[in-house]
Structure formats: structure tokens, C-alpha cells
Specification:
The chain is an all-alpha fold. The chain has 15 helices and no strands. The protein starts with a helix and ends in a 5-residue tail after the last helix.
Length: 337
């Protein structure tokens, strides 16, 4: 599908997106961005000719009860989150699992829900950076982390690998690596926030020709740092005894990761703006493009220059999501029943 989002986002109502740093936005500017982003979503929905399908059955009281019981017995004692915060994470994990894996067995759903709950818990609380950086090393060396929450997470990953690798060990390993990357991502966020690499510094853009951030950094970092591969594994293995052969979907793994990551980033981006978060894909992509001197495709931004802005990044992210959707349709739609 050949769709040019630049035409739509060039309209004056999207001028408020022409900023480069969410931390510099005033409250009024953030409010304007929140209102504008709804129109961005409508632009994308029209481009893909979206039709809202009937909602699938979502009632699964057993999953919710099992997950909440597991959370109370395994996570509650070692989490710094308040009980209501932990309950909210369990609700999000339950909802996400029911939505993403409607045809999966109870056991597969439980595995996915526990992983999502652990990942959200790690993301939402303070954990020593040294523990996060050494997590994968400890995992491969069969060492126990000092942090009790990370020890629980490590035990979960080993069980996940065993379950999903029952018929094909490669599938279990792929999913386990995805969960382990959650800690790597948290560690990377802390590093970039406290001491940005010179190619991502906040000094004036285009410092020197040999200090530009490689164009692939933001996207590759995004695809490697979340648990999208673990979700993909759950899609293609609905139960311990049944799975789609690895060779059938491995060629689409990269596009599946782009689809999941860009969909998540586009629709969760508003809360990142409100929170002033700067270590997400949208901010890192904007920073890296500005530092390399890339010019905007739109009118002069809010910073008064002609460099790349969030408007460009949003436009690019929508194109990535659209193109991955088309690519996946070509890969799988002929097999749809």
C-alpha cells in the first residue's frame, strides 16, 4: 500500500507536533499535543481503511484468579509497588493476554500473563542498575540475582523456555531471550538518561560529521529491548502440544517485531509526553536525526529551526507500521481460513 502520511500531517492542525524535546513542553503545549494525537490516530485509521470488528469474548475468570493468586504469593513480598499498583499491573497483564491470545490454551495464557506482569513490575519500580546490567550474565552463568524480584523473574524465564521449547528448543530460546531483554532495556534507559552517548548528547545538532548517531540505532534498540519476540512465540504456540512450525514464521520475525513495537509506541506515546519521558523510541529517534543534521519534511518546527522534529518521527513510525502490516498480509493472508 502506497500511502503518504506527510501530506496529512502537513496540515496546520499538526503544527504543535513540531517540537524536539518533550521536557521543554509547557502544560498548554502538552494539552495541545494530546488533542492533536487523536487526529493522528484517525489519519492512520483512514489510511489502513480500519473497520472496528466485533470484540472477541474476553471473559476468562480463571486466568484472572490464577494470575492474581500468583502475584500475591510470588511478587507482592518482593515488590516496592503499593498493593493497588500491583493489582493494576495484574489487570493490565490479564487484559493484554486475553486480547492477544484468544485461541491459546489456559497454560499458554498463564505463561504469557506471568511474563507480562513481571515485565511491567520491573519497568514500574526502582531496581539497582548494576543488577539490571548483570541479569543476562547471571542467567547464562546460573547465578542468582541479588534482587529477589529479578530472581523470581529468572525462575519464570527458565520455566517459560522449558514450556515453549518442548517440541522445538529454538522457540523456547527465542521467547526466553525476549523476556531477558526487558532488564537489558531498563539498564539501557538508565545509562542513556544519566550519561547519553556523545552521538545522542543534547548539545547543538550536527556537531561534527564523524559524531552522528547511526540511522539504525533507535529502531534496532527498540526491537531488541522489549519482549515482542516473547509475544510472537505465544501467537504461534497455542499449547504445549501444538505449534506452527518455526520455519513458517521465522522469515516474518523482523516485520512482526516492527508491527508490535510501532503499534505500542504510537498508541502509548501520549502518556510518555505527559510524563516527559525521553528514553523511548520516539524521543531517541528524534534526537538522533537532529544530531545528524537531518532536516524536517514540514515547515519550521517549534524550535525555530529546520531540523527533524517529533512530527517527522510520528510520520515515519506510521509508515513503518503500515508497511509492516502490508508485508505481513502478503506473508500470511493466503493461509488464513
Amino acid at each position: 500500500m502506497n500511502y503518504e502520511f506527510q501530506y496529512d500531517l502537513s496540515k496546520p492542525e499538526f503544527d504543535c507536533l513540531g517540537f524536539s524535546d518533550v521536557q521543554l513542553l509547557t502544560l498548554d503545549q502538552k494539552t495541545a499535543v494530546m488533542k492533536c494525537i487523536d487526529q493522528v490516530f484517525l489519519v492512520f485509521a483512514r489510511a489502513i481503511q480500519y473497520r472496528h470488528p466485533p470484540a472477541p469474548p474476553t471473559q476468562d475468570p480463571k486466568l484472572r484468579l490464577d494470575l492474581f493468586e500468583w502475584g500475591q504469593t510470588r511478587l507482592a513480598d518482593f515488590s516496592s509497588l503499593q498493593p493497588e499498583e500491583l493489582d493494576e499491573i495484574m489487570e493490565r497483564a490479564t487484559s493484554m493476554t486475553k486480547h492477544c491470545f484468544p485461541l491459546a490454551s489456559d497454560e499458554t495464557r498463564r505463561q504469557m500473563a506471568m511474563g507480562i506482569a513481571c515485565a511491567f513490575s520491573i519497568d514500574d519500580q526502582s531496581i539497582d542498575g548494576a543488577d539490571l546490567r548483570s541479569f543476562q550474565y547471571d542467567l547464562w552463568q546460573k547465578k542468582s540475582p541479588r534482587c529477589e524480584l529479578l530472581a523470581i523473574y529468572m525462575d519464570f524465564i527458565r520455566g517459560f523456555v522449558e514450556y515453549f521449547g518442548t517440541l522445538d528448543p529454538r522457540i523456547g530460546s527465542l521467547g526466553g531471550n525476549g523476556w531477558a531483554n526487558v532488564c537489558e532495556a531498563r539498564a539501557m534507559e538508565g545509562t542513556i538518561a544519566s550519561k547519553p552517548p556523545p552521538q545522542l548528547s543534547y548539545t547543538k545538532p550536527n556537531l561534527e560529521p564523524n559524531r552522528c548517531c547511526p540511522d539504525s540505532f533507535a529502531l534496532q534498540s527498540r526491537l531488541d529491548s522489549w519482549f515482542s519476540t516473547s509475544l510472537i512465540v505465544g501467537i504461534f504456540k497455542p499449547s504445549r502440544e501444538a505449534e506452527v512450525p518455526f520455519e513458517y514464521w521465522i522469515t516474518s520475525l523482523h516485520e512482526l517485531k516492527i508491527f508490535i513495537s510501532m503499534a505500542n509506541d504510537l498508541f502509548s506515546w501520549p502518556k510518555e509526553v505527559i510524563g516527559g519521558k525521553t528514553c523511548n523510541y520516539m524521543s531517541l529517534r528524534t534526537r538522533s536525526k537532529r544530531q545528524s543534521g537531518s532536516r524536517t519534511r514540514f515547515t519550521t518546527g517549534l524550535d525555530g529551526d529546520e531540523l527533524w522534529s517529533f512530527r517527522d518521527t510520528i510520520c515515519e513510525a506510521m509508515s513503518l507500521l503500515l508497511n509492516s502490516t502490508v508485508s505481513l498480509d502478503k506473508a500470511f493472508v493466503e493461509f488464513a481460513g
